[in-house]
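Usage example:
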Amino acid sequence: MQTLHVELGDRRYPIFIGSHLDIQHLLKPYIQGKQVMIVTNDTVAPLYLETYKKALTALDKVTAQCILRDGEKFKNIENLNLIFDALLASGFNRDCTVLALGGGVIGDMAGFAAASFQRGVNFIQVPTTLLSQVDSSVGGKTGINHPLGKNMIGAFKQPSVVFADMNQLSTLPPRELSAGLSEIIKYALLGDIEFLAWLEGNMPKLVAGDEQALAEAVYRSCAHKARIVANDEHEKGERALLNLGHTFGHAIESYLGYGTWLHGEAVAVGMVMAAELSHLMGWISTEDLARVKHIIQQANLPIYCPEIPLDEFLSYMSHDKKVLDGKIRLILMKKLGHAVITEEFNVDYMKQAILNNQKKGE
Amino acid sequence: MQTLHVELGDRRYPIFIGSHLDIQHLLKPYIQGKQVMIVTNDTVAPLYLETYKKALTALDKVTAQCILRDGEKFKNIENLNLIFDALLASGFNRDCTVLALGGGVIGDMAGFAAASFQRGVNFIQVPTTLLSQVDSSVGGKTGINHPLGKNMIGAFKQPSVVFADMNQLSTLPPRELSAGLSEIIKYALLGDIEFLAWLEGNMPKLVAGDEQALAEAVYRSCAHKARIVANDEHEKGERALLNLGHTFGHAIESYLGYGTWLHGEAVAVGMVMAAELSHLMGWISTEDLARVKHIIQQANLPIYCPEIPLDEFLSYMSHDKKVLDGKIRLILMKKLGHAVITEEFNVDYMKQAILNNQKKGE
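Running the assembly step on the lines above writes:
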């Protein structure tokens, strides 16, 4: 087991990363009150809910659960309200704990509920997907979608502890494993060329679900994100680097309708578009661009999106949250393994990068 | 005009208190982005919305408005969502400002929306009732009600500036003016015997709506609250003193149904009950108790609540948020003008204090 600390002053918290973690022992110091609400979904509950209930009962805690329907389309205000209903119907008070047991959707909703219930209660995260282990479990972004935009409503809420158990990835569908690898590749591309080389060597193991390799990839990814978040908790600057591929990706997700493509899949194509634009700007070489595409393909991820009319694609991009005063800021690669936040790019090249990475007729 | 600063480090903000404030001039430094969403209600909008829209337009801002229905019963998740709908339908982004123009309900809802929209945008408060000027405009507590409890869902969100204009109180119904005086009396009772004497001398002016006297009372009240909040932003300790009368008051409000009695009216009777219990405990004299009742009556506030079965009253009290691990903590007066947070009181005396201040047969 490895332990990583996210350094956020008095909200500093550890991430425990390993296989078959001793949850009962590790949970103990992080729950002061007696009441624990486990928020999970109907896919994860049959697999892991009982394990956590048992561990908590052995710690003399009173548990209750809120089992939501699985899927991004349920990440809305109505389902958020089901968590509040459960907390209040169970008579939970302000010294309770909300434990998120599931992927990014569960983490985002449970985290926002923990941030808002009684104006803030203790929050523990048990991410059960690779994506949520490397992405949403670090940094405290929580929230829900609105019909007019993704993650439009939420809070910054840091957990008191995160458990990333590789053993739980054994039940993850291969497509979701790949979607998680997409975000892992992102960390290499945005700031760690050495990690990219490591991934190129270890991708076969990662795709095969090797727990030791996965733990190492999760550790390195979380360490990257933790360093960036510690410098810029509320995304005033550097933290925006984590959106590499995301403005393009959000457009793909929005056009296709949330849930059609996985977030990681859309981000994969988004990273290819960002790399292609960086190449067209003369910042990365043909070989660099080929390396980006290759590592993404090694992870069984798409490098093309379906055909999307350019004007619609651009319209979705400009609805992205990262747009300030109408100006699109993109995360591009000044060189491979070194991303920057910039508004200084050629718009025609941007359009070309989008069009070059669509598969016509699909 | 007087200016009071709420000292909260990098979230320090000013409260401007006066009559006929020069809004356009004063607002300017507190709005960086171009977009301002005015959240108000259908009572306040016809009176003051145009004034604020004009001032903002003159500052070259783009304004939009969200006009909610007036009343505590609309302080729920459905109406909160109307604010998000308005923000997104207007294409507002993360550098927008949410301006609350109204009483406590509007401030609480607009503040929670500002805390949650895009995980936090700029927030400005223009409290238009006496209660909200002295209570909800200081301290950053925002939120909504849930069918199972009041203010159960929310956030701590500090405004960047507050405008308390006494002139706006001229349109306030007398009953609401009295409800605001209830919270003003609270500050005197919990920690300022000299202010109590001032109130006893000035209550006739206050009840008559004298703007100069009101401004002084608002300034003193906000200064009290600001000092307490600066010491204890997240209510770990001292801030709970502000709940003097509130645990009793919440029981009255809950039993009668929110909106039947005004919050300040319920708190008034709650303060009498707290004073009576303090007297039964031997902490304050018969004369002190009489002074408490007298100042409350001077403000045209009730000192009795309708008859409520004791077991129901106690049950509502124990549902109050300030109950930790099943123990009721009350704010009682160790002496007049000096309140404490305590679990150490005689439960039979508490019951007696409740029963003594009910009007039988009502």
